[in-house]
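Lab notebook: predicted structure, single chain.

Context: the supervisor wants predicted structures on file for every construct in the current expression panel, including those that have not yet been purified. This is the next one on the list. No modifications to the sequence; it matches the entry in the shared construct table.
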Amino acid sequence: MKILAVTACTAGIAHTYIVAEKIQQAAEEMGHQCKVETQGSAGIQNELTAADIQDADVVIYCHDIAIRGVERFKDKRVVDIPIALAMKQPKSLIATIEKKLAAK
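Prediction complete. Output recorded below exactly as produced.
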């Protein structure tokens, strides 16, 4: 599965980047390709390209504030969750997405 994620927390410092790393690591450990865009205090980093978006099976929004540029994902399956949930259980999140996509 090709997973994209966008992370953004209120302060845009620690949680944005910690969750990005946790999701990336969990997805790769579970055999998936993953790319994560961070929208933190340093602005948008590792910005997802049109090709990334086109090839993605799912996009995960992990945030406590508004995600910028959501119109880029209008035709994609999107999972929208609080950043704390992704931080605590990234593998469970990926496993749930696997099950839901397999059922469709």
